[in-house]
Backbone:
């Protein structure tokens, strides 16, 4: 997973998978990407960064189920009462966490949960029912995709045991484009 350099063949594959055939008209442009990154104190991981700048900043075709959101957009069901999102703070997890099964009381868990939803990631979109896909932009899992829901959080990639898909944005899109279920590991 290369998060520092975009491969032209991979970008072409992403454009086809995301049905981005408007000659880059829906792209944010490099000035827009640089402004977003400066505002949030981050550098987006590749190949997502170049995709947003040159090919498309979102896609109705998906992934996920309800489409790929624009880099600055939040899902309609995200809620207005959430804490401020701070993308420059490290995403706090490096392994799956099912807080639904955590024996600690909610009062103890709540301060640990907000950073999982709101630090170090951009929200790529939703599959509905509070199931969000995040691209991690800071911390040890930079470039990885995570599924975060009301029950827990888990990384996407074969090495984590929930899927046969390859880690990273390209692997996530390839898995979806192949019509595979997200959690298809035996």
Residues:
């Amino acid at each position: 997973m290369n998060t520092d350099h975009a491969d032209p063949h991979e970008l072409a594959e992403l454009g086809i998978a995301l049905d981005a055939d408007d000659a880059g008209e829906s792209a944010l442009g490099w000035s827009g990407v640089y402004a977003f990154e400066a505002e949030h104190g981050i550098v987006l991981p590749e190949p997502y960064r170049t995709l947003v700048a040159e090919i498309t900043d979102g896609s109705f075709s998906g992934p996920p189920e309800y489409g790929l959101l624009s880099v600055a957009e939040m899902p309609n069901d995200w809620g207005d009462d959430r804490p401020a999102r701070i993308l420059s703070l490290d995403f706090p997890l490096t392994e799956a966490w099912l807080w639904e099964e955590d024996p600690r009381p909610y009062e103890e868990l709540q301060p640990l949960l907000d950073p999982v939803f709101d630090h170090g990631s951009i929200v790529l979109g939703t599959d509905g029912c509070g199931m969000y896909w995040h691209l991690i932009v800071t911390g040890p899992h930079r470039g990885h995709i995570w599924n975060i829901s009301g029950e827990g959080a888990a990384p996407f990639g074969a090495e984590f045991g929930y899927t046969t898909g390859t880690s990273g944005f390209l692997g996530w899109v390839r898995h979806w484009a192949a019509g595979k279920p997200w959690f298809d590991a035996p």
